[in-house]
Amino acid sequence: MDVLRQVEELFPGIESTPGVCGGEPCIVRTCIPVWVLKQARRLGVSEEALLRSYPALRAEDLASAWAYVRSHRAEIEEQIRGNEAV
């Protein structure tokens, strides 16, 4: 089984697609990278505010994102650092 399929099966609602958002894990139906949501949460943005700011997001998308972050903490931190440097 390839890595992309494993991500989708283990974390429904999260997908990594080469050529889309740099291949970073994103919420399905959107181009919202998981690291963006994690960084917003770290900065004090509530889930309610995230849902208002991104109308395509659903509460279950956030639950999947947080589960992905818990399992891929180092990867997400690296993506945040990499994007802060830009």
Characterize the structure shown:
This protein is mostly helical and 86 residues long. It has a two-stranded antiparallel ribbon with strand order 1-2. Helix content is 57%, strand content 5%. Helix 2 (34-42) crosses helix 4. It has a single domain (3-84), classed as Winged helix-like DNA-binding domain superfamily/Winged helix DNA-binding domain (Arc Repressor Mutant, subunit A), CATH 1.10.10.10. The mean pLDDT is 88. The longest helix has 13 residues, at 59-71.
Name a few traits of the molecule.
single chain, 86 residues, mainly alpha, Arc Repressor Mutant, subunit A, two-stranded antiparallel sheet, 5 helices, 2 strands, 57% helix
Low-pLDDT runs of 5+ residues are none
Count helical runs: 5
Domains (count): 1
Following the backbone from N to C, one meets helices and strands in this order, namely: HEEHHHH
Taken from the alpha-carbon principal axes, the silhouette is: globular
Q: At the fourth CATH level, what is the homologous superfamily?
A: Winged helix-like DNA-binding domain superfamily/Winged helix DNA-binding domain
- CATH class wording: Mainly Alpha
Radius of gyration: 12 Å
For this structure, the CATH topology is Arc Repressor Mutant, subunit A
